[in-house]
Design brief:
mainly alpha, Growth Hormone, Chain: A, 18 helices, globular
Length: 430
């Protein structure tokens, strides 16, 4: 590998520029998701003529592209660098979203979504990896919380923009979603410095390329596999809020498409306003306490939705779901980084993205299928699922924290060469 300078230029405020650019790219991705996801089921059922029970299959095509690509290219940022991966993936996802405006038919749409998902498979994990490269381990929870805030700012503007565009045509939201990600790719091309340091690839001589299992560490690291299994179980049911509410609210006559966009913009605004406050509150709480709290919030949301599709229930449900994600969101990437050797950080983050991809694939597919059987069935089925998953996830994250806190000093230095050793990556959740 060609030697890459390890000096990372600071921003004008003394903060690492790659981390700030990573926050900007999270904003772009959040805007795209916010503009696209709430309106996609409405576009599919009204303008594309797709049966409700099959809408989840199109979501599955997007997530399926990520699942296919992640084992093959998930760790590529550990080999070629973070910068080219971020540039190409953001441009690829943006162009894929724009292409949806021009395509017609279920088959063509599925193909475009599959290709777009393949590009997206490395976008989010590589952003998180670049942030982790240039920040201290003890600061990772704070930076990952800021990443959620940046994404949520985009998820405020995205649905708001989508709600306005939906007045003209639901398909126009694809142009806005794709255009912002293309802009993000251009900014990365112009301003991002490489964060893969000169010593990273050689820091662990035993971690040589050994095929698929090296690119998807869950095949090799049982601790990571167990952690991600609980993440998938928890996130699948939580995803039903996002995937099913647009159909639930429209069929009940509670909200118009523009109203649905405003509802999800409100959820993003709630995260922007409260995420850092919740993260500060979470510093003194155990991982199990936080995941159980997230589980109870999600269960409360499901109970309200099962009781009524009225406006008050919808607003309260998305509020509770947003709080649940504020509690759990920064914990998962922090725990994954705690398990990852520095030379395999991007690979481990890519493995964790597989859990998100499974959620994005199985969540809408199962949720919309249950909704097709009975409108309240997703909420009733989700309550016991979330209860079990929140307990298992808390225990798995706690074990990852214990490993990091008790790692031997020599092992710590080998795993995090060139990084300041100022504290545990999970210290803030002690």
């Amino acid at each position: 590998m060609t030697a890459i300078p390890s000096t990372i230029p600071p921003s004008g405020h003394g903060l690492p520029r790659p981390a700030l650019l990573g926050l900007f790219l999270f904003f772009c991705a959040g805007f795209a998701d916010g503009a696209l996801v709430p309106f996609f089921p409405l576009w599919a059922s009204s303008e594309a003529g797709i049966p409700i029970g099959a809408i989840g299959l199109l979501f599955a095509c997007y997530a399926g592209g990520e699942l296919v690509a992640a084992p093959l290219i998930g760790g590529i940022a550990d080999r070629v660098g973070r910068r080219p991966v971020l540039i190409l993936s953001s441009l690829g996802v943006g162009c894929g979203f724009i292409a949806l405006f021009f395509v017609h038919g279920v088959v063509t749409t599925a193909i475009v979504l599959l290709a777009t998902g393949m590009c997206e498979s490395v976008l989010h994990p590589t952003i998180l990896t670049a942030i982790a490269d240039v920040t201290e381990p003890s600061a990772h929870p704070r930076w990952f919380s800021m990443a959620r805030v940046s994404s949520s700012v985009g998820q405020i503007l995205g649905p708001t923009c989508g709600a306005l565009l939906a007045l003209m045509s639901l398909s126009t939201v694809f142009l806005a979603a794709g255009g912002v990600l293309v802009l993000g790719g251009v900014v990365m091309l112009a301003a991002l410095a490489e964060t893969l340091g000169r010593g990273d690839a050689a820091s662990d001589p035993d971690e040589e390329d050994d095929g698929l299992s090296a690119l998807l560490p869950a095949f090799r690291d049982g601790r990571l596999a167990k952690l991600l299994a609980w993440v998938v179980l928890f996130e699948i049911s939580g995803n039903w809020i996002e995937a099913v509410i647009p159909l639930y609210a429209q069929d009940a006559g509670t909200l118009t498409p523009s109203g649905i966009g405003a509802l999800f913009a409100y959820a993003g605004a709630l995260t922007v306003g409260l995420q850092m406050l919740v993260s500060r509150f979470a510093e003194t709480r155990s991982a199990l306490w936080l995941t159980v709290g997230a589980g109870l919030s999600t269960i409360g949301a499901f109970a309200l939705l099962a009781a009524s599709p009225a406006m008050l229930s919808l607003v309260a449900a998305v509020s509770l779901c947003a709080v649940a994600q504020m509690l759990v969101g920064p914990l998962v990437p922090t725990a994954v980084n705690a398990l990852a050797p520095r030379s395999r950080r991007a690979s481990y983050m890519a493995a964790s993205s597989v859990a998100v991809d499974l959620k994005d694939s199985l969540g809408p597919s199962i949720g919309t299928a249950l909704y097709a059987l009975a409108p309240r069935l997703p909420w009733l089925a989700g309550i016991p699922l979330v209860a079990i998953a929140s307990l298992g996830l808390g225990a798995a994250i706690g074990r990852a924290r214990h490993r990091r806190d008790n790692v031997e000093p020599d092992d710590q230095a080998a795993a995090d060469t060139s990084m300041p050793q100022n504290g545990s990556m999970l210290e803030n959740y002690r």
